[in-house]
Amino acid sequence: MIHFRQYKYTDNLFNTDFLLVRDFLLKLNNPTYSFGWWDQQITRPSFKPEYLNKFGLWSKNDRLAAVACVDINLGSGILCVDKSNRTLIPDMINYAKENLHNNGKLSLLIPDLDKEYQNAAANAGFIPTQDRDSESIMILSERNLHYTLPDGFQITSMAEGYDPLKFGQIMYRGFGSAAYESMLTSSDTTPIDCQFKRPFINLDLQIAILAPDESFAAFCGVWYTKESDSVFIEPVVTDPSYQKMGLGKAAVYEALKRCVNLGALSATVFSSIQFYFNIGFCPNSTSTWWAINEVPFD
Fold first, then answer.
1. Dihedral over alpha carbons 243, 224, 201, 220 (to 10 degrees)
2. DSSP state of 54
């Protein structure tokens, strides 16, 4: 029998439900929502923990069978269900429409080859948009992870030299994030500390390239656990002052080399930008955002 309930968020982000969803995603190995994305996104400054109480959990025989959650914000829904319980998809879509929308607007990320999910979404009033997400993959045994650094630059990690302000600075300079800008202005590193001083993170795998002035010139974060042979990469950023120097590649390769030593076989990134293809990743799957209630067209 299927049992439904909503996620129970407490002051402890890493509570029983967090572990339940994490274990489910590890077993599911869903290309649109990996355990690594779940691990890192829950402490991102842009993620609001109160959203967690809107997530839907379906269980069968005391084991999690499906999860309805958001990508980052309300209005962007991700539905994850195991192969033996896909009859839940219509109910999950209806749940998302009622609980995960943003002022009535909702998009669902649907794998392009999942016709059953597409048909259920179409029947519920969703249509595909031009917005797509891509997953790219690298088989680590097939790649030479050699790199060189320009003179004056060196490798470090957040385990060797933990510096939240340097991390905030490169995230702001690389991505223009207002959240990180406000942290730098106030020198309040609490949100960044929450990202790094937490369970299920290996600070040896959070790699930075130090510039001659000892600022972070590039950064690569990876998420790996012995329960999976795959590495999830997020984020990768290079300071605009140091682009086109091979520093982003060096940060990624160093992180992946360390993961190989721990037993990783492949690496995944939710991106299809040319940078990743240039350093050895290959396109693996694509998903499209299907929207309801306001899809503009000419």
1. 0
2. G
CB 122 within 8 A of CB 291: no
Residues 6+ apart with CB under 8 A from 131: 107, 288, 289
The DSSP output letter for 102 is: B
Q: Does the bond joining 235 to the residue before it have cis omega, within 30 degrees of 0?
A: yes
Using DSSP, state whether 103 is helix, strand or coil: coil
The number of angstroms, rounded, from the C-alpha of 225 to the middle of its chain's C-alpha atoms is 15
pTM as predicted: 0.93
Instruction: Write the burial class of residue 81 (CB in 10 Å: 0-12 exposed, 13-18 middle, 19+ buried).
Output: buried
DSSP run (H or E) holding 172: helix 164-175
CA angle 182, 184, 190 (to 5 degrees): 85
What the block records as the tokens of 114 is 């999942």
Read off the pLDDT of residues 222-270 as tens digits, 9 standing for 90 and up.
999 999 999 999 999 999 999 999 999 999 999 999 999 999 999 999 9
Question: Which residue from 39, 83, 84 is spatially nearest to 235, judged by alpha carbons?
Answer: 39
Q: Can you read off the two tokens belonging to residue 20?
A: 């339940």
**Are the CB atoms for 290 and 107 separated by under 8 Å?**
yes
Q: Which two tokens stand for residue 4?
A: 């439904």
Spatial distance between the Cα atoms of 34 and 80, rounded to a whole number of angstroms: 10
